[in-house]
Amino acid sequence: MIFRRIAGVAALALSLAACGTSQSATNEPDGALKIGVSPVPHGEIIKYVDENLAESAGLDLEIVEFTDYVQPNVQLDEGKLDANFFQHKPYLDDFNSSKGTRLTFLAPVHLEPLGLYSKKVTELGGLPGGATVAVPNDATNLGRALKLLADNGVITLKEGAGTAATERDVTGNPKNLTFEPLEAAQLPRSLDDVDAAVINGNYAIEAGLKPASEALVLEKTEANPYVNGLVVATGKEQDADLVALGELLQDQKVKDFIARKYEGSVIPAE
To answer: Which of 9, 51, 61, 81 is the most buried if burial means most Cβ atoms within 10 Å?
Structure first.
């Protein structure tokens, strides 16, 4: 296994280096599958697969970590990755639509429930009037965050808005909350400056938060469309190695690892 980390903008710089040839491509071992991941929990899950299951399936994995939600898709679309594992299908669909990429969701793996966290209050009812709540600034996760707040009676949304909701769809805001959209990776750090923040599960865990026990409210898992999974370039859905990797990620041993390591903060897909 080769394990590398590329941080946000630095990933783009690497991809432009060496006269248009990415550094990662020149260092790629022959036959290795290059997988772009968020560090937690995706990188940890892929590392478990690499160390425990990949060799017996004839797979050699190169794991490339990203700290943003953009470059893993850009580099997959450009052919610099063979697959990525960091996102749910609604985010992928929105990304394909807005960026013109051609990427396909191949295999569902796990759910990271979105949660509301605070360093200022210990229960939802303690949010003061006029509180500032940080939310993800990408379209799919913003709607998801607003729906979480609406499902728990904090706000009301226009009928039918669902997970596509924006601030314009808020029809009731009895606490007169102010919403502060931020890049998802910045949300844990915002907790020192805002009253509460709706944080994606991977960034919450990476910041040392425990969604199952520390979130003021946590997203419901039943019929939840936000399952994270393996994504490949459109046209590669039948590639034997990628199909095999998808199957390994859905193996019962991986589900047991997820359940054991994350204790309900990450939930294996059914």
So the answer is: 81
Q: CA 236, CA 23: separation in Å to the nearest integer?
A: 23
Is residue 78 packed enough to be buried (19+ CB in 10 Å), middle (13-18) or exposed (0-12)?
Answer: middle
The answer to whether 262 and 210 have CB atoms below 8 angstroms apart is: no
243 and 249 Cβ atoms separated by less than 8 Å: no
Predicted model pTM: 0.80
Nearest to 86 by CA among 49, 41, 54, 47: 41
CA dihedral 79, 82, 87, 93 (to 10 degrees): 50
Q: How far apart are CA 193 and CA 119, in angstroms?
A: 9
Q: What angle do CA 236, 239, 240 make, to 5 degrees?
A: 165
Spatial distance between the Cα atoms of 198 and 184, rounded to a whole number of angstroms: 9
What CA–CA distance (Å, rounded) separates 118 from 122? 7
Residue 191 near residue 119 (C-beta atoms within 8 A)? yes
DSSP output for 161-219: -GGG--GGGEEE-TT--EEEEE-GGGHHHHTTTSSEEEE-HHHHHHTT--HHHH-SEE-
CA distances from 263 to 112, 224, 256, 260 (A): 12, 19, 10, 6
DSSP character at residue 59? -
Q: Which one-letter amino acid corresponds to residue 90?
A: P
Query: Rounded to an integer, what distance in angstroms lies between the CA atom of residue 177 and that of residue 267?
Result: 31
SS3 66: strand
